[in-house]
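We store chain and fold; thus.
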Amino acid sequence: MVDPVPGCSIPKDLKIDIAVQPVSRRLPEAIYRSWVEDQRGQLEYKSEAQFDQQELWNVRLILTSSSGNGEIQSRVTPTPAGFGRWDLLFFALPFFGIGFIWFKAITKRRRQKP
C-alpha cells in the first residue's frame, strides 16, 4: 500500500517494480511489474514474484515517477503459497470434526443415562 508524505500526493505516473534474485546468484535477477488496485480510496500496488526454492533471496523495490526515483533492498526467505484467507478454516477443519464427534458422543451418553 502506498501512502503519500504528509502535505504531498502520490504521483499519477508512479510505477513500482519488484526485482528478485537468489543470494547465491544461481539465477539472474528477474523484474516483475506491479499493477494498481484502488481499495476504497487506498492505492494498493500488487505484484507476483516467482521463487523456485525456499532459500534466501535479494529483493529490490524500485519506484519510478516523474517526481523522482527510489529504491530499497532487503533479503527475504519466501514461504510456500497457501490458500490465502482460507488457510485458517482449512487447517481448523479436523479440530471442528473432532469437536463435533465429541459433542455427539456426549449427547448420546446423556440420552442413555436413566
User: Anything to note?
Assistant: The CA atoms of residues 5 and 78 lie 30 Å apart. The two ends are 63 Å apart (CA to CA). The chain has a mean pLDDT of 88.
